[in-house]
Design a protein that fits this description.
With 137 residues, the chain is mainly β. The chain is built from no helices and nine strands. The strands form two sheets. Strands 1-2-9-4-7 form a five-stranded antiparallel β-sheet, with no helix packed on it. It has a four-stranded antiparallel β-sheet with strand order 3-8-5-6, with no helix packed on it.
Length: 137
């Protein structure tokens, strides 16, 4: 499980505490995860997450980069029946993008909002998605 208070080598910049439990929130417009891999072959990264979307924030659009190269755009849309459920991001990293056995997985959230922005709570952190778990395949 991902937690800010653990010594974790994968959390780079742009992460903050989940005040109500386990996991880490992406914070601001840019966040990244850092991985060191042993084999340079295509790698699938699965991220269990909970996007910060609701009736006031209908969409979360993320640009995903690997070592500075745009590889994917992920879009989460609000659905009344499914709003705060865990989603799964499947990101395939081509072996040609892995440099020196390192992966810098970057997320750009151009429309980051805070709970304060939508008058939900006094929390002014611009959050995007809550990481629950990460698997490398």
């Amino acid at each position: 499980k991902i937690e800010i208070n653990e010594k974790s080598d994968i959390l780079g910049f742009g992460w903050t505490h989940n005040l109500s439990g386990k996991g880490a929130w992406s914070e601001g417009y840019f966040s990244n995860l850092l991985f060191e891999v042993k084999k340079t072959e295509n790698i699938n990264i699965q991220i269990e997450c909970e996007p910060f979307i609701n009736e006031k924030i209908k969409n979360l659009n993320l640009k995903v980069l690997v070592n500075g190269n745009l590889i994917e755009e992920i879009k989460f849309k609000f659905d009344k029946d499914n709003s705060n459920k865990i989603k799964l991001m499947n990101i395939t990293v081509n072996k040609n993008l892995i440099k020196n056995n390192k992966i810098n997985l970057q997320f750009i959230n151009e429309n980051a909002k805070s709970p304060l922005d939508i008058l939900q709570s006094p929390d002014s952190r611009k959050i995007g998605f809550l990481i629950k778990n990460i698997s490398l395949i």
